[in-house]
Amino acid sequence: MSAKARDALRRGSETAMTTAQGSACALVLVVDDDAAVRLSLKFMLELEGLKVQLFESGEALLSQKTLPERGCLVLDQKMPRLSGVDLLRRLKERCVELPAILITGRLTQDLITVAMAAGFAAVMEKPLEGGGLIEAVRLALARS
After folding, report:
1. What is the mean pLDDT of residues 5-16?
2. What's this model's pTM, rounded to 2 decimal places?
3. What domains appear along the chain, each with residue ranges and CATH number?
4. Reduced to 3 states, what is the DSSP secondary structure of residue 104?
């Protein structure tokens, strides 16, 4: 994980704590247009005992009649038609307040600033190596 991503993760998450019991019934909603990334994230998160639901686009997530009350979002930034930041804004317009993590192939300070202003709990750079994403998801679930 890059230093920028670690700093973005630390902001707003320094006091959050989680337990396996606290995240057991929550759902991680993963939105990424790349099927290989979606399946890799599902595998990694399920190995940690988390429930995961996959979506190939922001539109697919927005088409859901209901979303879980507890859980978190893992949103890719660069997707056709609707970016991760724009998707989170649309969800907030619908009063969906799930904590969200933005993943991107190109992390910049500008993107971190925009993402944090939009309400993301963390911004992480692909490839997602090590336990950074798991830690960010657990912290997000502790807040949901």
Report:
1. 41
2. 0.84
3. 3-143 (3.40.50.2300)
4. strand
pLDDT tens column, 38-81:
999 999 999 999 999 999 999 999 999 999 999 999 999 999 99
The 3-state secondary structure of 4-45 reads HHHHHHHCCCCCCCCCHHHHCCCEEEEECCCHHHHHHHHHHH
What CA–CA distances, in Å, run from 117 to 2, 9, 120? Answer: 20, 14, 7
Q: What burial class does residue 47 get, using C-beta atoms within 10 Å of its C-beta: 0-12 exposed, 13-18 middle, 19+ buried?
A: exposed
Is 89 within 8 Å of 117 (Cβ atoms)? no
Whether 140 and 17 have beta carbons less than 8 Å apart is answered as no
